[in-house]
Design goal:
The chain is mostly helical. The chain folds into two domains: 80 residues; 82 residues, no CATH class. The protein contains five helices and four strands, in the order H-H-H-H-E-E-H-E-E. A two-stranded antiparallel sheet has the order 1-2. The chain has a two-stranded parallel sheet with strand order 3-4. Helix 1 packs antiparallel against helix 2 and helix 3 crosses helix 4. It is elongated, with a radius of gyration of 29 Å. The relative contact order is 0.08.
């Protein structure tokens, strides 16, 4: 399961990098185009083809657009596109959390629980953990896998396979 998730993260990461690069190319093309408009309009202003008022109005609009484009480029450059490594670290932590917990000091155990859990409730002698994201996904999958193999709640369904569960009532 972990390897499948790592592979999915790798593929998603490649898609994200491609999207990031395409977006930067488009923004740079647009910035170059707008700068070309400014340069051409300035030449037209100097040669008297356009008025001073028109030049001021349009150059101001284009300058504002360039600022917006540069802000978007900066946002893309600051975006964390290396989430693949983060995802792999989360998977490894989720996969090794139990063994890590058993071998660590009490202080380290507490730190690990603070990373994984957001809260816990204690009801009638049972502790119910509330996991932080993305660890809640692993907990739900584990809970789902633990419940597999038990008798379906709707035993009258004709499409239910006898091999998909075992009887919980002694036969």
């Amino acid at each position: 399961m972990v390897e499948d998730i790592k592979q999915a993260l790798r593929e998603s990461h490649q898609d994200k990098i491609a999207y990031h690069n395409d977006a930067l190319k488009a923004l740079n093309r647009r910035a170059k185009h707008v700068q070309g408009l400014i340069d051409k309009a300035y030449e037209d202003k100097l040669s008297g083809v356009i008025s001073e008022d028109f030049w001021k109005r349009k150059s101001s609009e284009w300058q504002n657009e360039l600022v917006e484009i540069n802000n978007k480029i900066e946002s893309h450059n600051n975006a964390d596109i290396n989430y693949f490594e983060t995802g792999v670290k989360i998977l490894e932590l989720a996969n090794n959390a139990y063994n890590m917990y058993l071998t660590q000091s009490r202080y380290e155990q507490r730190k690990l629980l603070n990373i994984i859990l957001s809260n816990c409730t204690f009801y009638r002698g049972t502790l119910y953990p509330i996991y932080k994201k993305p660890f809640d996904i692993f907990a739900k999958r584990h809970q789902f896998e633990s419940n597999l193999g038990y008798r379906d709640l709707n035993p009258n369904r004709q499409i239910q396979s006898l091999l998909s569960y075992h009887w919980t009532i002694p036969q």
